Each structure stands twice: as structure tokens, then as C-alpha cells.
């Protein structure tokens, strides 16, 4: 049980939840969140947005029952966090772009803080969020609203691209990088139950066979993922 | 002194709490969470003779107090399982039970043979699998068809054999009696209920396979009734499960006659649920001055 | 124009929403809440030939997303029912269906005769009742035993005959096929699931009868699967039910092939649920530009 | 949907919930309360404690899931009320005692206000509640703590006794009145589902056959009720 520090609405149906405590975790990893007792049944996987000495934060969008309950949390309410789960974005060096679509920008914050000197691309459909915070961490900063972020991304400029967002966007980037030196890492979202690799409901098909998104992922080499699912 | 240990036929469990197949990986996955050797036992993910990639499409869906899964028995196949996990499982101080599935009788038998040759602690025969020769109807629906698998498996199985029953069986008591007649060391029940979910916007079933397996708290009242019926009718030991999420649920299954209980879906609510249930049972026994679970088993 | 009306064999419903037996009294009880003539139909509380006082002890128990009931068919008996309620029910502008139970075949038949003589709109034959001659095993478990009741009832029944199936049936598809063969005008399913609950402090079953019937949202995924299976296999119309609590649930049952849907337990969550579901279906049809439910029935 | 005005803890695990609006109802009747969406399944029957031009109030004890949720309601939260259901205490004249045990005092407040010139007996196991409020409505006022209220009640003093509380207490009073002119009315609690007489899970056995506690009751003539259930 941990204590909520704050839970702010930041636009686009998204909230920034800050929880008190010393938590572990690296860029790309996630926690299973539970701010209820029995209902709904399953906990919700949410990426680490940021982590500090005495707090952890999550950026989430309200889409259904679970995130609705999360959105009602107030300062001093309690929440259960299990994690950190999953692998991390790789700690590489070179010219790096972080590309987030919509809610997919969430894990890129900690990635930008960790990797440093990155370019950040953020695509939104209507409203923008946290521009100041992300801009501050970026060498070069690109934002599109109502237009595909992939339209302004030149993959060949980069050694590495780390991306999180809608599947079509990530697939597009992987396709654009085909045959180029650019390595693309994608963060995959799958429905989960256990979060620890024990139930196999989150399988992601890859060229080297089935992988568990919760344990072997959520970060995969883009080239490895079989997207037609 | 409170003693949580139970005898399940020839098997000795340090406590009655066993993790259910398919919800606890091969144990290893939960090692980082707690010392799994505190558990009475674990059942492995269902293993088939050959590797299976499992089902396509969505594999999990939440329902009111339950979940549907359509994993489709994804597993590395018996040989690879033995190579990668058997030594690990045997090194654990708990009863590790290998859950075996199949789509033909021959497949089951070959898997059982390999498992026995490798001296596994026990086998849980999952007869809920679709029988390819019977047009995909599960082996565990009709007693006569299930009998063929159980008989052949028993013939060649030299480790304790537990048959895992499906709640979709036409007659679960007959099924359990059949297992007893054929010499099974015990039965476990229930597996998931065949069920479905729909996306009305897409006007399609949620699962590529249309039907999926329902588990979790929603099924507990039915599972408990089935375990009660079976316990009243057989004299071999029973592992009861279906929607157990706390020590009280566990005690209910013991009070209707279960020797061990299995915990599945609740691992997804709380990965430390096994320990919590063990501690809950212990505290209850101390408070109620119960020395052994024999005192309350089958009291209802 | 959106048209919610459906034909169920010879019966015309102004909309597919029917209140389930045992949860809506004789309709009258809900009159003070809303104009029940907005409903497509209602099923009466189960009537037996002779008055029954029902079961002793606790009769309702909450479970995870469901409830257990052990009412035990309390009812005034067929004669008194006809005297007190038949004129009222026939005066209503909706299809009123008399739900009939019994513990022997003769009892069923006599009740059906009386109902027919009094020209009820339709009969729903509840074959989930314990069969006293078969040691209390419900009529609706084995197809052969159910066939005897259905055949004899059909013989003498000159109003539409709907057979209500139990989810505890050994094979619910066989059961529905049997009803079709025997000339039933339709089937309705599912009745409650046999289940149980325990008070661990008293170390006793909650219900004097030990087992009770489970209903509510928890059973929906299983009920929906059963309705799907039955609809794929019979050509007589089907009334689907089990855990329907909103218009989306209702549409799911229609998409798997149900002609009418019944709402039971949800009446206890919201006494106006019938109206809410009708309005919800209407709005959905308008939004999706669906003229008749025929367009989506059985689409899955 | 109605709005909560206040929801105060008043001791003995009991809360007084006041809801805004013009509600109908008479002494002895109850409402089905629901301050949640899906879980738990059933609504909870609670007697009318008091009713005014622009409010209704309920006095309830936290015993399980539903009342626990009720206890967390705050000013301006919403709650669903269905009712009023059930019959009422009879509007009689003569010498009247209202006898409440524990939480059973709840419906007696409105009864005292309606009947006037009554004697009130309240029995508690540990703490007392709302003494000032009840005393104000009583001709004579008796309270016991940790002792049976029936020990100090002389039934023959009264033409009518209306009682609500534990079954053994009510049975005792009915027994004490046997053969006397005193008419005893008891308010029965049974688990309910529909609350309107449609499901028959709340049957109360009486000498004139089964009655529905929610529709034919909750108030019954004590002599009629078969208590050995
Ligand atoms: C590794 C990982 C990291 C994630 N990180 C974030 C994040 O940082 N911010 C954020 O807003 N969202 C994130 N998501 C998505 C988030 O988990 C879902 O939006 C959320 O679970 C929806 O829950 P709900 O109860 O609101 O929706 P409901 O639709 O009511 O949920 C029903 C069930 O489906 C599951 N589900 C629904 N949508 C998704 C989805 N897109 N991905 C996975 N499961 C889903 C739920 O977990 C639940 O089990 C992440 C998902 C994964 C797998
Ligand atoms: C006509 C009537 C009037 C009532 N008036 C009051 C009142 O004014 N104040 C008050 O504090 N209580 C009153 N009660 C009792 C109150 O309904 C229960 O205490 C309450 O339902 C418990 O709900 P729970 O979720 O907290 O408990 P749980 O034990 O979690 O409830 C589980 C189920 O059992 C039912 N239940 C449990 N205890 C009782 C009980 N004693 N009576 C009826 N159903 C029960 C619940 O309604 C629910 O369906 C009244 C009961 C009835 C029938
Ligand atoms: C995701 C998942 C996978 C499962 N896989 C298997 C399996 O491989 N073999 C098996 O016998 N049972 C399997 N089961 C069934 C469980 O072992 C258990 O019988 C069932 O879930 C009921 O228990 P519960 O309600 O505690 O989960 C699986 C269940 C779930 C939820
Ligand atoms: C309290 C109660 C009483 C019932 N009585 C009857 C009955 O008399 N006859 C009958 O055929 N079904 C009876 N049923 C079953 C319902 O009609 C319905 O089949 C079942 O509850 C499943 O639907 P639901 O989940 O919408 O409630 C009863 C159900 C409940 C909850
Ligand atoms: S969520 Fe269970 S294996 Fe990934
Ligand atoms: S609660 Fe349904 S009849 Fe009384």
C-alpha cells in the first residue's frame, strides 16, 4: 500500500499520478496498479513515467473502469503497486529519437531523463500535454497535432529510435527504418493478467517465436515483432 | 502445535495450498516475488507432447468478478519442459505437479511416459482439452471418453496420478467415480467453465476461438457445489478450486471435503496470495484451536 | 422507423424484453413502479399444481457479482393463481407467460391442463424442478427424462409451449433439440446454476437445502455461450437470459441468436430495468440505423 | 439519484445519513439504498428514521460491505433511493410504548413523532446514541445499557407496544403480552432482494401463512409471527 501525493488532470483525458515512496524501476518498465479491493478483477499495467528518490509517477489516460477509478484518487488515498515488471529500453549511445503517440508519450519521459541528449517527437490528435516538461529534456523537440508524427520523422537521421504509441504508428516507423542502419525499439501494449510471465495471456508474436510482453517485453526490437495480429 | 500438513494419497504437502496450472508459470516466474517453497505445491502450465503456440487474437477478457482466457495451451512441449524445468522443479521443497494436456490419447500417453521416466513428483491429467478425433469436443465431457484416457494413463503412470475434471462434464460425479475406479490417486476440480464474450460494436465474438474459459470469484459458488458433490461420492482425495481468493474461500473448500486447494486467478489480483492464504489458514486454526485440518475437512 | 417488435413462433411481442420467472412476481407488484405494459412480456412466478410454502431458512445470499436463491417454488397453487391473477394478466397489453413447475409428471400435466383451459397466453415449462420419483434429481438434467414431461405437456397443451432449460443439464444442446423434436414452440434458457455457500464460522451450509440457484451478472458469460450453442442447433425461437443487466447485455444475447431476452436478477438492482433496456435497445437501433432486430439476430 | 446532505458518525458503529429531497414515507416503511454502481449486487433495505419537507434520514449500523460503503458518503455525494416500501406502524390511540433494541431504534423516531405521547424504551449493549433526540419525543423515557430492556418493561401498562430490534427481544415482548390486552407490533428484518414483493426471498412465517416482509410487512402483529425460524 502506497500513498498518493497528487493526481492531476493534464488534458486529453490524461492524469499524472504521483505516489509516495522509494520505488525501483527503469525506463520502459511498468507497474501493475490497483486502487480498489475486489472490483474490477485485474490490476492495470501502467508504465513508469518518472521516478525520484521519494516518489514514482504515472501518466495515464482514462479509457475504462480501472483508469476511471484511478482518476478519482486524491492526495493521501492509498494504492497498491506491484513491480517494476518487464524489461527496459536499452541504454544505448548515439543519435537517439524518442517517438510517442498520444498516451504512448508516458514512458518516454523517464527514457529521455535516462538517455539524455535525445530528440523527442510527440504526436497528438487534439490537445497537447506536458510540452514544457518534455521540451526541457529534448535536444530537438517536435510536436504534431492532428497529423501523423511519422510525417516529419526522418529515421535515417538516427542510430536509435525508441517508440511507444498506437500499433500502426510503431509499425510505420519500423517499416521506414527497414534497410537502414537505424535500430527501432517498440514498447508493446497487450492485455495482461499476471504481469510476471506466469499466465501467457500477453503473448507477442516475434520472429524468434512467442514472447511474453510482460516479462520479455514490453520493449522489443521493432524488426523482431510480427505486427499483423 | 498447529499442523497445516496434509496427506494427499501418497503425496505429503506441508500445507494444502497449491498454485493452479496456467496461472503460476513454472514457479520460477514468481521467485522474485516470494519464496515459493513456502507453498504446499504448484501445478505447472499445461504441457503437451509437442510445442504449442497457443491461440491467436485476444487471450484475456474481464467479466463481472471473473475473467475469460483463451491461451490455447501455449507451451514448450514435453521434451523441452523436462530439459529446462524438471531439475529446477525437483530441487524445490514442495510438491511439483506436472499438468499434462493433449489432443489425442496417444499424445497424452506419450507425455505421461516421458514425465514418469523423468520421475516427476506427480501428474495432473487435464482432460478439458479438445479431442481432435471427436471433432474438438473436450475429452472431459463424457465419462466414457475420459475413461479411455485415464485408464491408459494409469497403466503406464508410476507416479501419483491426479485427474483434473472439467465443470463442463455432463456428470462430474460420474466422472470422479470413474477416476476412482480406474485407480487415479486423486481428482482435482474445477477447470474453467466454457463461456463467451461479445463486442457489440464490432458485432463479433471477443475471442478468435469464440468460446473461452471462465475463472475467478464468479465461479466459486458453482465450483464449491461440484467439489462438495464429488467429495461426498468418492473416497480418493480431492483438490478443490474455482474462484478461491482468500483463506476463507480456501476453508470453504476444505469444509466441503477437499484435501488440498488450488489457487489460480487470484494470483493475478495479488501475486503473494499463496502466502496470504497459508497464513490465513494458520491463524484461523490457532484461533479456533484446530490441530489438524482433518478436524474440519468434509464437515459439511 | 425503428421497430422493436419480434415474432416468437405464434406469439407477437412488442419488444423482445420479457421479465424472468420468480423475479417479477405476477407483474402486479411492479405496477406502482412503472407501466409494465411497456414490456414485451412477463413470466409469472413458477406455479405448481398445489400451493407450496417454499423452503425454510435463509433464502437469498449475495456472491461475487451474483446471488443464490432458495425460494423453493413458494406459490399459491394453480387454482388460486388462476382465480386471483389470470384475468388481470390477460387484461394486460403484453404477452404473459405462465411458468409451471412440478415434482411429478402428472403434476405438470394437470397444471398445464388447467392453464390451457383458462386460455393463458403461453406456458413456460420449468423443467429444473426436482423430480421426486428420481430421488430429487431435477427433470431437466437428463434429456430422456425431460422428454417424457415435454411430450406429455405438448400433447395436451393448446397454447404456445416454451420449455425452460436448466444450465445444469448434462447436454443443453441435446435438451433443446429434444424440445424441438417434441414440438415445443420455443425454449428459454438459462435457469439458475446449482451452487452453494458456506458460513465458515458456523461450519454449516448457508441454506437449509445446502444447494441453491445462482443468478446474476456472474453467470452471463456461461449463459451466453449456452444460448449461442442452442441457437446454432435448433430452428425454434429462443429466449435468452442469465445475468442481463443492461441493453448491451441484451444485444449480446440477441446477436448470438435469441429472439427474446429475459431479465431476472437485474430487477433487484433497478426495478425499472425493463424500461431502461427497452430504451437502450431502441437508441442503439436508431444510432446504428437498424430497422428490425432480424438484422443482427444470430450474427455471431 | 439524490444528494447527501450529511452522514454523521453517532457512536455504536452507527451513522445518521440525511438525504436532500421531498420523499414520501410513513413510520415503519423503508427504502432500498444504493450508493454504488455494480458491486455489491443488491441494494440495502434501511428504515426511514425521519422525514421532513426537504429531506429524509436513515440511521444505520455498519455491519458489512454495503453499509461500509454508505458510511463513506460525504456531503454532495449521490445515492439512489427506491421506496418507500412496506407497510407502516398502525396509527393507533391509547397508551403506547415504543421499544427499540440496538439498531432497532432507527424506525422508532418517526413513529414517536407521528404517534405522539408515547413512552420510549431503548436498550443498548455498550454505547448509547441520540438520547437527546429521542428523549425529546417521549412522555417517559427509559434506557438500559448492557442489560435487557425487557427487564424494565411492564407490558400490561400499555395498550400498544411497537418494537424493533433483535428477534429474541421481540419474541420476549410478544410472550410477555400473551393473555394481556396489550397489542404488540413487531418490525421484522429479513434479507431482501426486490423489496417490492416480487421475489419471495423475504418470507416471514405467520399464523395466517407466509407473508412477504417487504410488502405485507415489515410490521406484523406480534401474535401472528411464528418466531421459531
Ligand atoms: C506494459 C503496458 C504499459 C502501459 N502503460 C500505460 C501508461 O503509461 N499510460 C496509460 O494510460 N496506459 C498504459 N497502458 C494501457 C493501460 O494498461 C490500459 O489503458 C488500461 O489497462 C485500461 O484499463 P481500464 O480499466 O481503464 O479499461 P477497460 O477497457 O475497462 O479494461 C478492461 C481490461 O482490458 C485491459 N486493457 C484495456 N485496454 C488496454 C490496453 N490498451 N493495454 C493493455 N490492457 C488493456 C485492462 O487492463 C483490463 O484488464 C499500458 C499497457 C501496458 C500493457
Ligand atoms: C425492512 C428492513 C429495515 C431495516 N432497517 C435498518 C435500519 O434502519 N438501520 C440499519 O442499520 N439496518 C437496517 N436493516 C438491516 C440492514 O438492511 C442490514 O444491516 C444491511 O442490509 C446490511 O448490509 P451490509 O452490506 O452492510 O451487510 P452484508 O452482510 O455484507 O450484507 C449481505 C447481504 O445480506 C443482507 N443483510 C445482512 N444483514 C441483514 C439484516 N440484518 N437484515 C436484512 N438484510 C441483511 C444485505 O442486505 C445483503 O443483501 C433493515 C433491514 C430490513 C429488512
Ligand atoms: C490464464 C489461465 C490459464 C490456464 N491454463 C490451464 C492449463 O494449462 N491447464 C489446466 O489444467 N488448467 C488451466 N487453467 C485453469 C486453472 O488451473 C483453474 O482450474 C481455473 O482457473 C479455476 O480456478 P481459479 O478460479 O482459481 O482460477 C488456466 C486458467 C487460467 C486463468
Ligand atoms: C429469486 C428467484 C426466483 C426464481 N424463481 C424461478 C421460478 O419460479 N421459475 C423459474 O423457471 N425460474 C426462476 N428463477 C430463475 C430466473 O427466472 C432466471 O432463469 C435466472 O435467475 C437467470 O436469469 P438472471 O441472471 O437474469 O436472474 C428465479 C430466479 C430468482 C433469482
Ligand atoms: S501477463 Fe501473464 S504472462 Fe504476461
Ligand atoms: S424482497 Fe422480494 S418479495 Fe420481499
UniProtKB/TrEMBL annotation, chains A, D:
<feature type="binding site">
    <location>
        <position position="199"/>
    </location>
    <ligand>
        <name>[2Fe-2S] cluster</name>
    </ligand>
</feature>
<keyword id="KW-0408">Iron</keyword>
<feature type="binding site">
    <location>
        <position position="214"/>
    </location>
    <ligand>
        <name>[2Fe-2S] cluster</name>
    </ligand>
</feature>
<dbReference type="InterPro" id="IPR019480">
    <property type="entry name" value="Dihydroorotate_DH_Fe-S-bd"/>
</dbReference>
<feature type="domain" description="FAD-binding FR-type">
    <location>
        <begin position="1"/>
        <end position="91"/>
    </location>
</feature>
<dbReference type="InterPro" id="IPR017927">
    <property type="entry name" value="FAD-bd_FR_type"/>
</dbReference>
<dbReference type="InterPro" id="IPR017938">
    <property type="entry name" value="Riboflavin_synthase-like_b-brl"/>
</dbReference>
<dbReference type="GO" id="GO:0046872">
    <property type="term" value="F:metal ion binding"/>
</dbReference>
<dbReference type="InterPro" id="IPR037117">
    <property type="entry name" value="Dihydroorotate_DH_ele_sf"/>
</dbReference>
<keyword id="KW-0249">Electron transport</keyword>
<dbReference type="GO" id="GO:0051537">
    <property type="term" value="F:2 iron, 2 sulfur cluster binding"/>
</dbReference>
<keyword id="KW-0285">Flavoprotein</keyword>
<keyword id="KW-0479">Metal-binding</keyword>
<dbReference type="InterPro" id="IPR039261">
    <property type="entry name" value="FNR_nucleotide-bd"/>
</dbReference>
<keyword id="KW-0813">Transport</keyword>
<keyword id="KW-0001">2Fe-2S</keyword>
<feature type="binding site">
    <location>
        <begin position="66"/>
        <end position="67"/>
    </location>
    <ligand>
        <name>FAD</name>
    </ligand>
</feature>
<dbReference type="InterPro" id="IPR050353">
    <property type="entry name" value="PyrK_electron_transfer"/>
</dbReference>
<dbReference type="Pfam" id="PF10418">
    <property type="entry name" value="DHODB_Fe-S_bind"/>
</dbReference>
<dbReference type="InterPro" id="IPR012165">
    <property type="entry name" value="Cyt_c3_hydrogenase_gsu"/>
</dbReference>
<dbReference type="GO" id="GO:0050660">
    <property type="term" value="F:flavin adenine dinucleotide binding"/>
</dbReference>
<comment type="similarity">
    <text>Belongs to the PyrK family.</text>
</comment>
TrEMBL record, chains B, C:
<keyword id="KW-0665">Pyrimidine biosynthesis</keyword>
<dbReference type="InterPro" id="IPR005720">
    <property type="entry name" value="Dihydroorotate_DH_cat"/>
</dbReference>
<feature type="binding site">
    <location>
        <position position="126"/>
    </location>
    <ligand>
        <name>substrate</name>
    </ligand>
</feature>
<keyword id="KW-0285">Flavoprotein</keyword>
<dbReference type="GO" id="GO:0044205">
    <property type="term" value="P:'de novo' UMP biosynthetic process"/>
</dbReference>
<dbReference type="Pfam" id="PF01180">
    <property type="entry name" value="DHO_dh"/>
</dbReference>
<protein>
    <recommendedName>
        <fullName>Dihydroorotate dehydrogenase</fullName>
        <ecNumber>1.3.-.-</ecNumber>
    </recommendedName>
</protein>
<keyword id="KW-0288">FMN</keyword>
<feature type="binding site">
    <location>
        <begin position="191"/>
        <end position="192"/>
    </location>
    <ligand>
        <name>substrate</name>
    </ligand>
</feature>
<dbReference type="GO" id="GO:0004589">
    <property type="term" value="F:dihydroorotate dehydrogenase (NAD+) activity"/>
</dbReference>
<dbReference type="InterPro" id="IPR033888">
    <property type="entry name" value="DHOD_1B"/>
</dbReference>
<feature type="binding site">
    <location>
        <begin position="45"/>
        <end position="46"/>
    </location>
    <ligand>
        <name>FMN</name>
    </ligand>
</feature>
<dbReference type="InterPro" id="IPR012135">
    <property type="entry name" value="Dihydroorotate_DH_1_2"/>
</dbReference>
<feature type="binding site">
    <location>
        <position position="45"/>
    </location>
    <ligand>
        <name>substrate</name>
    </ligand>
</feature>
<dbReference type="InterPro" id="IPR050074">
    <property type="entry name" value="DHO_dehydrogenase"/>
</dbReference>
<keyword id="KW-0963">Cytoplasm</keyword>
<keyword id="KW-0560">Oxidoreductase</keyword>
<comment type="function">
    <text>Catalyzes the conversion of dihydroorotate to orotate with NAD(+) as electron acceptor.</text>
</comment>
<comment type="similarity">
    <text>Belongs to the dihydroorotate dehydrogenase family. Type 1 subfamily.</text>
</comment>
<dbReference type="InterPro" id="IPR001295">
    <property type="entry name" value="Dihydroorotate_DH_CS"/>
</dbReference>
<feature type="binding site">
    <location>
        <position position="190"/>
    </location>
    <ligand>
        <name>FMN</name>
    </ligand>
</feature>
<feature type="binding site">
    <location>
        <position position="216"/>
    </location>
    <ligand>
        <name>FMN</name>
    </ligand>
</feature>
Amino acid at each position: 500500500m502506497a500513498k498518493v501525493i497528487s493526481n492531476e488532470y493534464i488534458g486529453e483525458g490524461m492524469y499524472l499520478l504521483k505516489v509516495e515512496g522509494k520505488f525501483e524501476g527503469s525506463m520502459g518498465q511498468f507497474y501493475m496498479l490497483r486502487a480498489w479491493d475486489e472490483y474490477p478483477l485485474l490490476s492495470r499495467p501502467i508504465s513508469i513515467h518518472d521516478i525520484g528518490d521519494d516518489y514514482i509517477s504515472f501518466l495515464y489516460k482514462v479509457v475504462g473502469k480501472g483508469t476511471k477509478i484511478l482518476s478519482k484518487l486524491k492526495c493521501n488515498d492509498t494504492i497498491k503497486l506491484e513491480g517494476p515488471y518487464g524489461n527496459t529500453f536499452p541504454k544505448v549511445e548515439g543519435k537517439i529519437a524518442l517517438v510517442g503517440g498520444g498516451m504512448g508519450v508516458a514512458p518516454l519521459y523517464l527514457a529521455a531523463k535516462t538517455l539524455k541528449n535525445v530528440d523527442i517527437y510527440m504526436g497528438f490528435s487534439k490537445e497537447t500535454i506536458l510540452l514544457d516538461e518534455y521540451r526541457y529534456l529534448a535536444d530537438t523537440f517536435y510536436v504534431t497535432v492532428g497529423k501523423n508524427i511519422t510525417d516529419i520523422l526522418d529515421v535515417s537521421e538516427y542510430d536509435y529510435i525508441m517508440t511507444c504509441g498506437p500499433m500502426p504508428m510503431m509499425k510505420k516507423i519500423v517499416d521506414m527504418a527497414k534497410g537502414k542502419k537505424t535500430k527501432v525499439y517498440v514498447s508493446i501494449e497487450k492485455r495482461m493478467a499476471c504481469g510476471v510471465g506466469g499466465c501467457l495471456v500477453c503473448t507477442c508474436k516475434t520472429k524468434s517465436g512467442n514472447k511474453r510482453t510482460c516479462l520479455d517485453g514490453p520493449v522489443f526490437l521493432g524488426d523482431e515483432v510480427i505486427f499483423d495480429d | 502445535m498447529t499442523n497445516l500438513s496434509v496427506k494427499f494419497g501418497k503425496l505429503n504437502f506441508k500445507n494444502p495450498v497449491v498454485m493452479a496450472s496456467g496461472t503460476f508459470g513454472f514457479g520460477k516466474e514468481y521467485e522474485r516475488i516470494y519464496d515459493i517453497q513456502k507453498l504446499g505445491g504448484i501445478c505447472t502450465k499445461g504441457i503437451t507432447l509437442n510445442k504449442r503456440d497457443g491461440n491467436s487474437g485476444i487471450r484475456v477478457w474481464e467479466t463481472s468478478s471473473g475473467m475469460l482466457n483463451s491461451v490455447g495451451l501455449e507451451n514448450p512441449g514435453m521434451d523441452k519442459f523436462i530439459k529446462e524445468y524438471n531439475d529446477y522443479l525437483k530441487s524445490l521443497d514442495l510438491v511439483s505437479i506436472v499438468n499434462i494436456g493433449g489432443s489425442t490419447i496417444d499424445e497424452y500417453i506419450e507425455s505421461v511416459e516421458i514425465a514418469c521416466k523423468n520421475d516427476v513428483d506427480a501428474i495432473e491429467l487435464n482432460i478439458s482439452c479438445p479431442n481432435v478425433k471427436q471433432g474438438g469436443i473436450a475429452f472431459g465431457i463424457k465419462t466414457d471418453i475420459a475413461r479411455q484416457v485415464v485408464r491408459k494413463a494409469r497403466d503406464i503412470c508410476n507416479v501419483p496420478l491426479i485427474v483434473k475434471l472439467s465443470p463442463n462434464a455432463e456428470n462430474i460425479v460420474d466422472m470422479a467415480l470413474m477416476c476412482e475406479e480406474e485407480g487415479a490417486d486423486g481428482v482435482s476440480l474445477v477447470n474453467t467453465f466454457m463461456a463467451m464474450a461479445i463486442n457489440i460494436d464490432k458485432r463479433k465474438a471477443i475471442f478468435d476461438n469464440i468460446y473461452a474459459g471462465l475463472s475467478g470469484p464468479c465461479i466459486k459458488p458453482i465450483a464449491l457445489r461440484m467439489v462438495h458433490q464429488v467429495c461426498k461420492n468418492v473416497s480418493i482425495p480431492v483438490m478443490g478450486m474455482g474462484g478461491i481468493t482468500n483463506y476463507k474461500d480456501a476453508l470453504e473448500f476444505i469444509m466441503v471435503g477437499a484435501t488440498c486447494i488450488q489457487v489460480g486467478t487470484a494470483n493475478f489480483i495479488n501475486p503473494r496470495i499463496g502466502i496470504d492464504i497459508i497464513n490465513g489458514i494458520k491463524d484461523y486454526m490457532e484461533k479456533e484451536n484446530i490441530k489438524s485440518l482433518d478436524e474440519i475437512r468434509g464437515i459439511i
